[in-house]
Amino acid sequence: MAFRDDRHRPAGRRESPAAHGKGWLASAGEWFTESLAPGLGEWFTESLVPGLKDLVYPPRPLCPFCGQPFTPARGILLCPGCLQRLPLVQPPVCRVCGKPLRLSGAAGDKCQDCARYRHFFGMARAVGLFDGALREGIHQLKYQGRRALGEAFASLMFSRLNAEPQMRRPGLLIPVPISPEKLERRGFNQAALLAQGIGSRLGRPVAMDGLRRGRDTPAQNRLDARQRRRNIAGAFTATAPAAVSGRSVLLIDDVYTTGATADECARALLRAGAREVNVLTLAVGVLDRHWLGAGFPPA
Ligand SMILES: [Zn+2]
Ligand SMILES: [Zn+2]
């Protein structure tokens, strides 16, 4: 899919080799402009030549991070340079919540959190760490409304999902809802945007309003795990029990931190009859910075 967001296209630059190397179409236009009919020539160069050129060299999508044209590989809608800058989650990860064990303290094949606390969801996995370029990208998607980033992120999440045999065939996808107040302010729910992108690639239905978020809970970022659980308890309701009953549900969100939100959503869905709930997020937050090894985050 080609991005139509041209805001980051460098001025005066076109992606086809014809423009750089003065292909025959551009040369013809120039000749026409300079020697025959200046006005007509300009029209030829500016309107007709690009159109013809697109037939010969279909325009490549522009990377939503850096604005440069690139050729998508394996369905990833991000240029290789920007992909390399993302702090992708590296194994080994906690078999329950998917946090890198190197960063969250290991207790066997589980992290310290999951060894202590039993989650309602089955397993959670994330594409990258909530840090560096990924954190910046999520910020731009949410607060600057750069939706082209949502498509790129969905392509990454789909690719991550395919690496997890136990998660990759859900019956239904449901995004974690944001409060009506936030929806009003932001104009869209980033989790819903991601769920749509993943669902269409997966060929599975997405219940956009499968969960409803009641009250606007206070911001979670300064709370510890227990406070987060208390803060968010009872915040979600499954709106269509018949749709989730007996099915494996894949819950979609942008960031997983302590799992409190994912757990509350999973609890509501299990109560409504879901067979199991797994979680896929774009990023996983590592709360305690002292867990991070030396040299992290990368400069
Ligand atoms: Zn890029
Ligand atoms: Zn864990």
Topology:
Blueprint: H1 17-20, H2 24-36, H3 38-56, H4 80-85, H5 101-104, E1 106-107, E2 110-111, H6 112-116, E3 124-129, H7 132-143, H8 148-162, E4 172-175, H9 180-186, H10 190-202, E5 211-213, H11 225-232, E6 236-238, H12 241-244, E7 248-256, H13 260-271, E8 276-284
Parallel strand pairs: 3-8, 4-7, 7-8
Antiparallel strand pairs: 1-2, 5-6
The protein binds zinc ion (2 copies).
Task: Report what the structure shows.
By secondary structure, this protein is an alpha/beta fold. It folds into two domains: 40 residues, no CATH class; 212 residues, Rossmann fold, CATH 3.40.50. It contains 13 helices and eight strands. Strand 1 and strand 2 form a beta hairpin. One zinc ion binds next to helix 4. One zinc ion binds next to strand 2 and helix 6.
List keywords for this structure.
Rossmann fold, four-stranded parallel β-sheet, two-stranded antiparallel ribbon, 13 helices, 13% strand, globular, disordered C terminus, binds zinc ion
